[in-house]
TrEMBL record:
UniProt-annotated location(s): Mitochondrion matrix
Protein keywords: Metal-binding, Mitochondrion, Oxidoreductase, Potassium, Pyruvate, Thiamine pyrophosphate, Transit peptide
GO terms for cellular component: mitochondrial matrix; pyruvate dehydrogenase complex
A Pfam cross-reference name: Transket_pyr
Protein name, per record: Pyruvate dehydrogenase E1 component subunit beta
Taxon lineage: Eukaryota, Viridiplantae, Streptophyta, Embryophyta, Tracheophyta
Cofactor(s) this protein cannot do without: thiamine diphosphate
EC number: 1.2.4.1
Self-association state and partner proteins as the record states: Tetramer of 2 alpha and 2 beta subunits.
Record keyword Transmembrane present: no
Reactions performed catalytically: N(6)-[(R)-lipoyl]-L-lysyl-[protein] + pyruvate + H(+) = N(6)-[(R)-S(8)-acetyldihydrolipoyl]-L-lysyl-[protein] + CO2
Sequence ranges assigned to domain Transketolase-like pyrimidine-binding in this UniProt record: 43-218
Molecular function as annotated in GO: metal ion binding; pyruvate dehydrogenase (acetyl-transferring) activity
Organism expressing this protein natively: Lactuca sativa (Garden lettuce)
Entry function: The pyruvate dehydrogenase complex catalyzes the overall conversion of pyruvate to acetyl-CoA and CO2.
């Protein structure tokens, strides 16, 4: 802005002293404008996902949405609100309750250059379509010697909600994270949701995008940069949400918020925790995790999924392979209980990690009393 003013004022032939005084009087205005452009606003995760879908559909006519209740009902969780009215039924496609059927159709569309975004009402229902996700989507690029790209996004709520029972409350991060050919994204904040969904839609490979129902209505501050239609986050890059020197805590999705709250409690006891938001399970950001562990010399992993064969187990193995000599204490793993999710609220709470669990485990890692 100041550059434009300078050009126009200079064209009027003002002397250097007069021009300097003019610019000096403008500087508070310019400062305010810079502050305004970088100011943050609050945005829910729901709105972040909706805006990302809207902008990518507007920018690329090959992008379309398919799933149960995504159109007329505007999404079971209102992630697709307003999109049917804006883009029509050919690009926002309501389907029968047939995950295997509409997922197979979408994978076929991706073979032919379209970019489907498939919404599962819950990722538990993706089990009905797992053959297409893995055998039809994840393996095709490899089996075709790179001749067939499958640019498709499988998205929807993953993990536990509240009081919806075992068949709606499982985390599938470790399941899909074990599959070559897939990219697996696990957003936490509105910035994550917006930037990573855009990246997923633009990616030439199949992406599993695991959201969290509890986070949909949660608001996070976002900057003007995040709201830019061109904003995009790199897939496979973790974010250090909180810097620290005493212990590394890794988490993803809803558990990032729990880890951050635990870190605030630990700070009062003199433990300075570094919290890493993984953002992606596959590819996993080995460099960021190892660099942190080599600085803090301790590691705590947090996840809602099952402990056995879990994401935390993979991170622990990775750190042992790459940074074993830097560890000053055994690794602590915090995960969901090794049972199907109970329906009763009191038992459900016991089945998943809580903030106090993270605090206790971190104190153990730092040789403090639990």
């Amino acid at each position: 802005m100041l550059g434009i003013i300078k050009q126009k004022v200079g064209a009027r032939g003002l002397s250097a002293p007069v021009f300097g005084d003019y610019m000096q009087r403008l500087s508070p205005i310019a400062s305010a404008m810079r502050h305004f452009s970088s100011a943050t606003k609050d945005m829910t995760v729901r709105d972040a996902l909706n805006s990302a879908l809207d902008e990518e559909m507007a920018a690329d006519s090959s992008v379309f949405i398919m799933g149960e209740e995504v159109g007329e009902y505007q999404g079971a969780y209102k992630i697709t609100k307003g999109l049917l009215h804006k883009y029509g039924p050919e690009r926002v496609v309501d389907t029968p309750i047939t995950e295997a059927g509409f997922t197979g159709l979408a994978v076929g569309a991706a073979y032919h250059g379209l970019k489907p975004v498939i919404e599962f009402m819950t990722f538990n229902f993706s089990m009905q379509a797992i053959d297409h996700i893995i055998n039809s989507a994840a393996k095709s690029n490899y089996m075709s010697a790179g001749q067939i790209n499958v640019p498709i996004v499988f998205r929807g709520p993953n993990g536990a909600a509240a009081g919806v029972g075992a068949q709606h409350s499982q985390c599938y991060g470790a399941w899909y994270g074990a599959v070559p050919g897939l990219k697996v994204i696990v957003p936490y904040s509105s910035e994550d949701a917006r930037g990573l969904l855009k990246a997923a839609i633009r990616d030439p490979d199949p992406v599993v995008f695991l959201e969290n129902e509890i986070l949909y209505g949660e608001s996070f501050p976002v900057s003007a940069e995040v709201l830019d239609p061109n904003f995009c986050l790199p897939i496979g890059k973790a974010k250090i949400e909180r810097e620290g020197k005493d212990v590394t805590i890794t988490a993803y999705s809803k558990m990032v918020g729990f880890a951050l709250k635990a870190a605030e409690i630990l700070e009062k006891d003199g433990i300075n925790a570094e919290v890493i938001n993984l953002r992606c399970i596959r590819p996993l950001d080995r460099d960021t995790i190892n660099d942190s562990v080599r600085k803090t010399n301790r590691l705590v992993t947090v996840e809602e999924g099952f402990r056995q064969h879990g994401v935390g187990a993979e991170i622990c193995a990775m750190v042992v392979e790459d940074s074993f000599g830097y560890l000053d204490a055994p690794v602590e793993r915090i995960a969901g209980a090794d049972v199907p999710t109970p329906y009763a609220a009191n038992l459900e709470r016991l089945a998943f990690p809580q903030i106090e669990d993270i605090v206790r485990a971190t104190k153990r890692a730092c040789y403090r009393s639990a």
